[in-house]
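Check this:
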Amino acid sequence: MAQSLQTCKYKTMLNLVFDWFDNIQQYFVRLIKLYQIQNLKEKGIIWSFGLLMVTLLVIGLILSYLWSREPALFNVTEQAQSVINEINEKTGKQDNIVVGAATTATVINVSKTLLNKPGGYLSNDIAPPGVFLDNIPNWEHGVLVQIRDMSRVLRNDFSMAQSTSTEDKDLALAEPSFNNDSEKWLWPASESKYQEGIDYLYGYLERLINKDKQNAQFFARADNLVDWLQVVEKRLGSLSQRLSASVGQERVNTDLAGDAQAEQATYSPGNMLVKTSWFEIDDVFYEARGTSWALVHLLHAIEKDFSSVLIKKNALLNLRQIIRELESTQAPIWSPIILNGSGFGMTANHSLVMASYISRANTAIIDLKRLLKDG
């Protein structure tokens, strides 16, 4: 008896599924008939034009949704090995990951994600639906700033033993390529210049892992790492201030604090009202998401390449804490819009939540720098 009831239950569920598929099929049949030439002739030009507009609108909305999804975090070690394998297939060698390979390969993978994510690179789009999207372009800006900063440090610090050393030829070309105008769509398009930068990084990495060639170097020293962390500290500090200003704050001007003889070009009042424009709140939020996304990967790569330095300075746990704080910024956003509640008000304030994670990560970076210098 129980088995018979179970069988009837399964049959009922199957019938419901089949009915659902039949309804979907009938819906698509009716939809396709709307676009038949005979039907368009019978309905007339105005109706046909309206159908075209509705169709384009639906397609645009679907593409907007798909293109507005942020890329997921990837495994730095696996992707770095994938880049090495790609180079080995090209050269016919069996070179392995060396010091600096993880960081360089991660910059490559972050850059490729920027260009090849759903919808491609959107910041320079001049046609719908990309031209109407602003969240992902601001996310792209945050990622691009980190790529530019790291490519500059690779060129000026990580690949040079001292200030009088000769800079690497590929890195010297990669950095200006990534600094091309991010909104330029033609002559040359941003994507083409950024792809050139990726190609130059491939050239540097190919020489770096090749044991037969010794004309590319990566120096994993504490002072080099501090140079990059100083740049990251400033980026996160600026983002934290802009995020916190979503609710408006009266702040004491501390620009010249700590130096009695310091001067500035133009006068600034002692107290200033700082508030991010309502139209820029979501822009700053997504820029912070993009910045954090890129930094999570770069810091994982730094952990691998600078592991001996970090262990010697007893700073490995500090680095992992920074990564953990930044990973928290990548939690899913369940609200359809970025809310901007007033401090302890009734609604959430996504910018203040993001600022909290960014500020804690920035504080941990300051501690990490201190350990690398004095530890």
The longest helix spans residues 2-34.
